[in-house]
Give the backbone structure.
Amino acid sequence: MGKTFKITANILPANPTHPGIILQDEMKERQLTQKQLSDLLGVSQPLLSEIINQKRRISIEMALKLESALETPAETWLNLQKRYDYVTTYQRNQKLLEKLQLSQQRKKSLLEALA
């Protein structure tokens, strides 16, 4: 028989990648300036700059515009943003989540003791 492996669902990157970094890489690959892409998207250059500099999220509307301009599925941009948001929120709240998990374990132990 072959080896079995346990898959852990909670492996999170220490430094999640903001989708603005991916967008910046995409712009470099396509040799697009911020001005050119902002014109293609129909948005202001400062707004695009804020996304690239990780100061603004990629909204659904922006994802649709990126899909149209870059032919990259909007869902891809939204999934990147969702993953980034999840990891950063998890990291900010990790201590609270650990306390809640301990509380759940204590509650389970208490219920088992009473059974």
Observations:
- The first helix runs from residue 19 to 30.
- The chain has a mean pLDDT of 88.
